[in-house]
Amino acid sequence: MICERVAPFSDEWHQVRELCYILFFQKHGLPRTVLDDGLDEDAHRVCIKRDGRVVASGRITKLPCNWYDVTAMVVASPLQRQGFGAAIMSCLIDIARQLGADGLTLKARTTAKGFYSRFGFVAKGKVFPSAKTGVPHVRMTLSLK
Ligand SMILES: CC(C)(COP(=O)(O)OP(=O)(O)OC[C@H]1O[C@@H](n2cnc3c(N)ncnc32)[C@H](O)[C@@H]1OP(=O)(O)O)[C@@H](O)C(=O)NCCC(=O)NCCS
Question: The whole model's pTM is what?
């Protein structure tokens, strides 16, 4: 599987945005502006395509410390559990290492906790509801040093 970089505001970026909207926010009836967090220009985002269309993606953004936040991990529903998410996560970990990151942190949907555990992410603290959707999440971290 080939992971490609996604340039901000490119055609691929718009496809990723739609995938994120469908998977995270559509059923909660939220507007697409819920995706606007102002972090994309400085983010490192990757995707995998099938038949020219984006089917999987993820992003890391730098935090004030030397850690990076993993967000927008998505795989199109019909293609989940076929290794696409693992390929994206491996690619993001490689990029973080190249950037000299001390570690990665993320807010995992509790339903996806097992996926992140496979990469060595460890849950910290209590389960909490997402501010935007109310879906239960847990903070997870992976030290890279
Ligand atoms: C979570 C998600 C990114 C995982 O990607 P994926 O392509 O489905 O996962 P993969 O096929 O690469 O799975 C890699 C490994 O993790 C396991 N895994 C995948 N999803 C899992 C889950 N939800 N819980 C536990 N284990 C999981 C797989 O069984 C596989 O294990 P193996 O290596 O022993 O075979 C994807 O399913 C998804 O987009 N889900 C909906 C949106 C979402 O919840 N995103 C995460 C928000 S925090």
Answer: 0.96
